[in-house]
């Protein structure tokens, strides 16, 4: 999947990857459908951060989830 291209599919893929890697309990609340294409670059930055790290603190997970909520 080419996540650098702004599309519904790339946003959905990034959200799925982020929720899986962070083990977010309520992944349904972070639907890619609610994120506009105009927020693609911001989501890509979060995606790059998540895939680059192997572990996250609770506060980091909360901050990432909050930021995704802000993108909606």
Class inferred from helices and paired strands: mainly alpha
Report the average pLDDT across residues: 89
The fraction of residues in strands falls at under 5%
Tell me the helix content.
55-70%
Report the count of strand segments: 0
- Order of SSEs, N→C? HHH
Q: How far apart, in Å, are the first and last alpha carbons?
A: 22 Å
**Domain unit count:** 1
Computed Rg: 11 Å
What is the compact description of this entry?
With 72 residues, the chain is mainly α. 58% of the residues lie in helices and 0% in strands. Helix 1 (8-22) packs parallel to helix 2 (40-52).
Question: Helix and strand layout, with pairings?
Answer:
Elements: H1 8-22, H2 40-52, H3 58-71
Helix pairs in contact: 1-2
Describe this structure in words.
It contains three helices and no strands. 58% of the residues lie in helices and 0% in strands. The protein has one domain. It is globular, with a radius of gyration of 11 Å. Helix 1 runs parallel beside helix 2. It is mainly alpha-helical.
Name a few traits of the molecule.
single chain; 72 residues; mainly alpha
């Amino acid at each position: 999947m080419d996540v650098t291209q702004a599309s519904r599919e790339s946003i959905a893929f990034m959200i799925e990857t982020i929720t899986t890697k962070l083990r977010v309990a309520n992944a349904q609340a972070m639907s890619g459908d609610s994120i506009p294409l105009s927020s693609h670059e911001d989501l890509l930055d979060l995606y790059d951060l998540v895939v680059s790290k192997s572990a996250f603190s609770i506060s980091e997970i909360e901050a990432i989830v909050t930021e995704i909520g802000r993108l909606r």
